[in-house]
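Work Package 4 report. The design task specified in the project plan requires that, given a folded chain encoded as structure tokens, an amino acid be chosen for each position. We show below one input record used in the internal validation round.
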């Protein structure tokens, strides 16, 4: 059964079909679809890594609203939708799972917003170095394999946010991405899960 909860300090998720919850100034509320069996759609925001990324995406897009944002492993599209609600000028969400792409598109259509989110199954570097913010909430192995492509998607000085791994996995991933030409700016954790914030040096 879906419920209303905060996925980030200023972002609330609520069940589609119900009235949007009252939120404070500067908050956003995003509807969420149920599965046919009534359970939450995968990537609904309940996992710690999604919460870490949602908080960071919300903060970064509020600081610099007119960004181009790429959400790799978009799932339900919640991170892409947060970026759009915070003023991103271009938003792309990719996933290797066609079911996830359809799910993300269906969720994005719940929002009354003039900016379209482009969903597909393309590689992160398909569009070249054109994204100010790239977020990848996936597992450690794909993060290792996709490191070159994720780096190539960033504009000079762009920010890469990665999650989907535990705190003991931070050092190896940090070394990998620093060797790929990025600088680690910060790391965050929630329970045993972690996220890294890196920036392009190019």
């Amino acid at each position: 059964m879906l419920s209303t909860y905060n996925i980030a300090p200023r972002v609330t998720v609520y069940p589609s079909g119900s009235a949007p919850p009252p939120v404070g100034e500067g908050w956003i509320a995003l509807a969420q679809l149920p599965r046919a069996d009534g359970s939450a759609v995968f990537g609904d925001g309940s996992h710690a890594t999604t919460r870490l990324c949602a908080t960071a995406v919300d903060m970064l897009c509020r600081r610099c609203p007119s960004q181009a944002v790429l959400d790799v492993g978009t799932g339900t599209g919640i991170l892409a939708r947060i970026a759009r609600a915070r003023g991103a000028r271009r938003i792309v969400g990719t996933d290797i799972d066609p079911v996830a792409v359809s799910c993300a598109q269906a969720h994005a259509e719940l929002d009354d917003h003039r900016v379209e989110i482009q969903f597909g199954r393309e590689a992160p570097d398909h569009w070249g170095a054109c994204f100010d913010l790239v977020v990848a909430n996936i597992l450690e192995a794909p993060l290792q394999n996709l490191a070159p492509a994720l780096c190539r998607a960033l504009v000079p000085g762009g920010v890469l946010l990665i999650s989907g791994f535990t705190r003991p996995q931070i050092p190896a991933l940090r070394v990998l991405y620093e060797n790929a030409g990025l600088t680690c700016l910060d790391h965050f954790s929630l329970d045993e899960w972690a996220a890294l914030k890196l920036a392009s040096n190019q």
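The first strand starts at residue 5 and ends at 8. Validation will be extended to a larger panel in the next phase.
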